[in-house]
Amino acid sequence: MDEFELEDNLEFILQSIQELIEDQGENNPFGEVNQNELLANLVNYDQDNLMPDVSVEDVVNGKDVQGIPWEKMLFPRDQYREMKMKGYKNYQNLSYAREDALQDCKQVERDGPYYDFQYNTRRARLSIVHFQLRNLVWATTKHDVYTVHNQSMTHWSSLNQISTELINGDDCIIPKQRGHGSQSVSMVQFTTMAVDNDLLVVGGFHGELICKRLEDDGIVFSTRVTDDENAITNSLEIYQDPNGSRRLVVANNDCSVRIFDTKYFDLLNHYVFPWSVNSVSVNPDGTLFAVLGDHEDGLVVDPKCGKMAIYWLPGVKTQHVGCGTLETYHNPWLSLVEG
């Protein structure tokens, strides 16, 4: 993590604190402080003070898991979080009271040991421009992570601590493959991705689809799947159909789901739904799709015909943002997790 990035992070924290101070007036718990005073008490931006990585040992010794130098500030992390949560406005698209929805939700133990902190690095850089974007971090092994940072699709190796750029969205991307709908794209802002074995696929805000073989240089295939004004590529999934062929399913805001083969990237099927499709997930044997979008109900469909609703997924209290299918012992063909 370079000096500029560390300073940017601290400036962001200070800006949010200043807003809290102004909102709370004389009753704010920070006392009579202003942004200049806070800035004067921050860490000196020299290389010795930078903390790009945080280990379990560091946390045991009192370091922040995010590497933020709270000890250099006039206030602790807990106090900052308390004030932030008081002023935080949660995003909701419910048509009824939130309290009514909470009655239908299963209550969970908040102090359960769901995850143990292991390691944090700021060397694998990540930027997500909107909270509803999905799958912009993808881990294929314990040591290989794919991320999006600004207009760059990168691979991070935890073994050699090196980040390698794979696709630059600012470039004019000219695919190797000709025909089959392939065309060059440029100035792509990434919205989603998927990685499976040797294939990396990326989607963009204007319906772009970019496909790269990880063992080869360059881009094998790229196109715009739609010219619709509302064209965002929302989700991508690579799967194996019952015949053993690898397929790519693409969900877009133009209410469409498209299925491509992954050899020549021919468009095999195009299905249209009554609402924007935010996420499609395929069950383990490739025989069923869960299709979720801007509607309270979701669908389970047969990918061979697309429009046949085998099951409705009713009772969800809000529009769907994402989903995933799980293979379980009791129900090996479909268990669905929604969000």
TrEMBL record:
<dbReference type="InterPro" id="IPR011047">
    <property type="entry name" value="Quinoprotein_ADH-like_sf"/>
</dbReference>
<dbReference type="InterPro" id="IPR015943">
    <property type="entry name" value="WD40/YVTN_repeat-like_dom_sf"/>
</dbReference>
<protein>
    <recommendedName>
        <fullName>WD repeat-containing protein</fullName>
    </recommendedName>
</protein>
